Amino acid sequence: MDNQQPSSIAFPVASFSALSQQQAAQKTVAQLLDDKNALDDWTNNIERIRQRESDGAVKRTS
């Protein structure tokens, strides 16, 4: 007898995990939209990341 479980059992778990992550992301976005300071912080962080990436691209091409 083979004691291994069918692979189809793992699929719903993966789907649930992806769905949970999506729901968490949507909740986070909703919180950002409701909290002006959090949204400003998030926007500033994104701009800093873009600037670092831009600075890195300039250094690589120089």
Summarize the structure in words.
There is one protein chain. With 62 residues, the chain is mainly α. It has helices spanning 10-34, 36-61. The chain has a domain at 35-62. It is 82% helix and 0% strand. The longest helix has 26 residues, at 36-61. It is flat and about 40 Å long. The relative contact order is 0.06.
Keywords:
62 residues, mainly alpha
Q: Could you provide a short overview of the structure?
A:
The protein has 62 residues and is mainly α. It is 82% helix and 0% strand.
Number of helices: 2
Unreliable segments (pLDDT under 50, ≥5 consecutive)?
7-13
Anisotropy-based shape: flat
The total count of strands amounts to 0
Classify the beta-strand content into a percent band: under 5%
The protein's oligomeric status is single chain
Element-by-element helix/strand order: HH
Q: What is the residue-mean pLDDT, rounded to a whole number?
A: 73
Give the fraction of residues assigned to helices. Answer: over 70%
Q: How far is the N terminus from the C terminus?
A: 64 Å
How is the main sheet built?
Answer: none
How large, in whole angstroms, is the Cα Rg? 21 Å
Class from helix and strand fractions: mainly alpha
